[in-house]
Automatic annotation (TrEMBL):
Pfam entry (one): Cupin_2
PANTHER family registered for this protein in UniProt: OXALATE-BINDING PROTEIN
Presence of keyword Metal-binding: yes
Gene3D superfamilies: Jelly Rolls
Recorded superkingdom: Bacteria
Residues in Cupin type-2 domain copies: 33-100
Name used for this protein in its record: Cupin domain-containing protein
Length: 108
């Protein structure tokens, strides 16, 4: 049985947001994103992949399509395939997000 504990994924970097993989297959990936205040993932899109963000701790501003709002722990946000999405830690504290994508994006 492959078991991971979310509390083990706390790696932050002053240079850029950190992505820590928990699980990955040909059908999905599940990561923990760690963002210090001010760090962001610039808006982008995936043509054939859906993404879900779940805020574990901290507060982040999410942009999904034309919508933009700040959310804290317990919030889950859906970014469907083909829609621009991004996230910024606009709070005063570190933030951690659980991020699921299916299928994983194709890399050229």
């Amino acid at each position: 049985m492959d078991v991971k504990h979310l509390s083990d994924f706390l790696g932050f970097s002053a240079e850029k947001l950190q992505k820590h993989n928990l699980f990955k297959s040909e059908r999905f990936f599940l990561d923990v994103y760690c963002l210090t205040p001010g760090q962001s993932q610039k808006p982008h899109r995936h043509a054939t992949s859906d993404k879900v963000y779940l805020v574990l701790e901290g507060r982040c501003r999410f942009r999904i399509g034309a919508d933009e709002a700040s959310h804290g722990p317990g919030a889950a946000l859906f970014a469907p395939a083909g829609v621009d999405h991004g996230v910024t830690n606009d709070g005063p504290d570190n933030a951690r997000l659980l991020v699921l994508m299916t299928p994983p994006p194709e890399h050229a």
